[in-house]
Specification:
Elements (H helix, E strand, L loop, with lengths): L15 E4 L5 E5 L11 E6 L2 E11 L3 E9 L8 E5 L4 H11 L10 E8 L2 E11 L2 E14 L4 E14 L6 E17 L2 E19 L4 E12 L14 E12 L1
Antiparallel strand pairs: 1-2, 2-5, 3-4, 3-6, 4-5, 7-8, 7-14, 8-9, 9-10, 10-11, 11-12, 12-13, 13-14
């Protein structure tokens, strides 16, 4: 049983009005004789059993919005919501030990960031799959690169696996990925397009804050399997260095 389940005053007739598909956030109706306040703790009761607990993060005139911090079964609309007293310092410490190794409901956590490196600009969408691992998809615009003969630009999309040494989206960050690149070369009036398998690996560090804001710096290498156009004398080096600056939000 969660240590947050502490006897407290009951919020009369407060119920779950809405629950998100991720089961991470709920809307709570105000009780008959009280209104919810930010940072108040609550637990959700279903069939006389406490199935989830959390904290109020926002209030409005007729409802409050709560973040679910612990859950042992599916939350249903209409379930009773009860007020819980604020845990004592020792209880907070036990809760920290129990949850902070893999905090923030890792199984429902995603990260959306904009990733920039010298060759392009990408949108990196990560979804947690394990406490320290996430899968990612990253569509990337390849910047136009000019040479003495012509210019190259294109588009790429990667699928990646990410590992975090501390917990999700924080600390040491290792990424491996593979995908396809569609690039185009122009020499005068002549244009040629080519598709190539690509892969990359990077190592870096990600800083994550309580608000969800996070940023990262990383470096590594990228490989193009087919790095030269067939008819035009243009192409990429088969192995390229990569330096990444990445900024975004956890939700």
């Amino acid at each position: 049983m969660s240590i947050l389940l502490i006897a407290g005053a009951r919020a009369h007739a407060s119920t779950v009005m809405l629950v998100t598909s991720s089961q991470k956030m709920i809307a709570i109706s105000n009780g008959d004789d009280r209104s919810w306040a930010v940072n108040e703790n609550f637990c959700i009761i279903q069939d006389e059993d406490e199935v989830a607990c959390g904290k109020v993060v926002k209030t409005k005139d007729r409802a409050a919005f709560g973040r679910i911090d612990s859950r042992k079964s599916q939350i249903k609309k209409g379930s009773l919501v009860e007020f819980r007293e604020t845990p004592t310092a020792s209880e907070e410490q036990r809760f920290f030990i129990r949850t902070e190794a893999n905090p923030h409901e890792w199984f429902n956590l995603a990260d959306l960031t904009i990733s920039s490196h010298w060759q392009g600009l990408g949108l990196n969408i990560q979804q947690s799959i394990l406490p320290n691992f996430s899968m990612s998809i990253m569509p990337t615009l390849i910047f136009r690169q000019r040479t003495a003969l012509g210019q190259l630009d294109g588009f790429a999309i990667y699928l990646g696996l990410n590992y975090y040494g501390s917990y999700l989206y924080s600390g040491f960050w290792a990424q491996v990925g593979a995908g396809l690149s569609l690039y185009r070369g122009n020499v005068g009036a002549s244009t040629e397009r080519k598709t190539s398998p690509i892969a990359h690996t990077t190592l870096g560090w990600r800083w994550r804050f309580g608000s969800g804001f996070n940023f990262a710096l990383a470096g590594g290498v990228q490989w193009f399997l087919f790095n030269q156009l067939d008819t035009l004398d243009l192409g990429f080096s088969g192995v390229l260095p990569v330096a990444i600056a990445d900024i975004g939000w956890v939700f």
